[in-house]
Amino acid sequence: MLRELLNQVSVLLKDESGLTSTEYSTMGGAMAGGVFTASDALSQASGTAIDNVVNAVAGDDAAV
Question: Cα angle at 38 between 34 and 41, to 5 degrees?
């Protein structure tokens, strides 16, 4: 019984399937970079749209 337990632990330690913490952190960093880039682009686009609406309401046709 102890021998079987030691064999199972040995197999578990040799198993390399699944992701390691390095791969998880790399993927997390890539995802964070993508979210930052998307939010920055969305922020700039929505800011421009809001400025256009404000200028249109104010009657400033030069900015539209």
Answer: 140
Q: How far apart are CA 3 and CA 22, in angstroms?
A: 33
Phi first, then psi, for residue 17 (nearest 5°) are -75, 155
Q: What one-character DSSP code corresponds to residue 50?
A: H
Does the reported pTM lie above 0.85? no
**Whole-angstrom distance between the N-terminal and C-terminal Cα of the chain?**
80
**DSSP 8-state assignment for residue 59:** T
Q: What is the pLDDT of residues 52-63, one digit of tens each?
A: 888 888 886 655
* Structure-token match 């404000």, residue found: 54
Q: Alpha-carbon distance 40 to 42, whole Å?
A: 5
